[in-house]
Specification:
CATH class: Mainly Beta
Shape: globular
Largest sheet: 5 strands, antiparallel
Radius of gyration: 14 Å
Strand content: 35-45%
Number of domains: 1
Number of strands: 9
Distance between the termini: 22 Å
CATH architecture: Sandwich
Amino acid sequence: MADMHGYDVIKKLALADAPGSAATITIFDTTTAAGAAGARGRGARWKMIIFSIFTSHISDGTTGYTVDESWDGGTNWDNLQTTATIAATTYTKVYTKVSAPDFRCRYKNSASVITTFRGGLVADPRERSNG
């Protein structure tokens, strides 16, 4: 995980990472291979995660982008935040304060085929204001 002016870069997203039509992808999960090496338990060390995305098509209108936390290593997940709609062709940032030892971020596509999908997920190990 590279440092970017005090932020930890968790994941960079490109078109190859885009979900298929009506599919859900896990962007990051500290309990599985979708997380980076040594990421397990990092949720408690990172104060906030910032998801930035630009996509050609709107996300699913119910559970577009979700962040879940787990206090038991991923056995049970509790929804922390849901951003139902990520708008098409609009650069969007979602700020989420995390505190549990583990967390996961997921993105659900609408029925559309995505032709542009870029952005990323960064973590803030400090307590700064969002926006």
